[in-house]
Amino acid sequence: MQARTLGLVAAAAAMVAVGSGITVSDDLVGYPVYTAQAIRYALAAIILALGLRATGRSIPRPRGRDWIWLLLLAATGQALFNVAIVWALAEAEPAAVAVLIGSVPLVLMIAEAIQTRGRPAPLMIVGVVVVVVGAALVQGGGRTSLSGILWALLALACEAAFTLLAVPILGRLGPYGVSTHSCWIAAIQLAIVALIVDGTNALPALTGNQTFAIGYLAVVLTAVAFVLWYTAVERIGPATAGLFAGLIPVSAALTGLIPGLTTITAMVIGGTALVGAGISVGLASGRTTKPELQDH
Q1: What is the pLDDT of residues 74-128, one digit of tens each?
Q2: CA distances from 166 to 145, 214, 290 (A)
Q3: Which of 58, 50, 70, 11 shows the shortest CA–CA distance to 225?
Q4: Among the residues of the chain, which ranges form H helices?
């Protein structure tokens, strides 16, 4: 499979996996969020490490400045992202928060243009805008406040950082190395936050559904999706990979039908069609900018 094709498939699969995790996360409502995320990342790191060992590969060791990038990546793209989401949802309805975070393809496109000192192709601009609009339609709208908007914007910045801060180290550590190290670092960071925020109530007993939810998030949403996403970023660049972020609300809407958490409306159908059209238009630009990867 060609590098570009592999990158496109990996990006699509990663975002579908992320969307499915939204439905599963409903079982974790009421459980300490920082603890749940810390367990999720810790399990994912263990799974990734064991997977590498099982295939006879060693875990790439970070060196020098790699640690700075990994610490920043884990602190922003994982730990702070979860904190921002919690506070945003305390001030706004989930759909309103999701609409803002759903504009991450636009942020990634602009960031890549700045990095490469070039202009995005017109078709890429149109495609990204259509994807963002389509994702917003699928998610709908909701009540919010100024503080809710600010927290959601912080979450958006963290979501972009999750991709952009990995670019300088993907060349040497690879998707598996970046995913493994960022996960165990984020697990420690979130465990500290859990102890500070929840204290002695940070680790209540898990129910069967909660155990399944954390396990699903650790395996599918983290261990698998992280590697797929970083593989995509490595091969097709942040902007092109970002087009597929529009699949998150589509996947969430479809998987939410099973437990009855979502319904298919005309707005969802129209938004899904726009997401598909936007991705097609963006890919038609024919411009896939491979990021400059550090390799030393």
Answers
A1: 999 999 998 898 888 788 777 777 778 888 999 999 998 888 888 889 999 999 9
A2: 32, 24, 13
A3: 11
A4: 3-24, 33-54, 66-73, 81-91, 94-101, 104-116, 122-139, 146-164, 167-198, 208-216, 225-242, 247-255, 266-284
Nearest to 178 by CA among 167, 189, 191, 187: 167
Residue range 27-45, pLDDT digits in tens: 887 899 999 999 999 999 9
Dist CA 103 CA 248 (whole Å): 12
- Burial (Cβ within 10 Å: 0-12, 13-18, ≥19) of residue 166: buried
Residue 70 CB neighbour total at 10 angstroms: 23
Q: Which has the closest alpha carbon to 18: 226, 175, 260, 215?
A: 226
Record the pTM. Answer: 0.89
Q: SS3 sequence, 176-229? A: HHHHHHHHHHHHHHHHHHHHHHHHHHCCCCCCHHHHHHHHHHHHHHHHHHHHHH
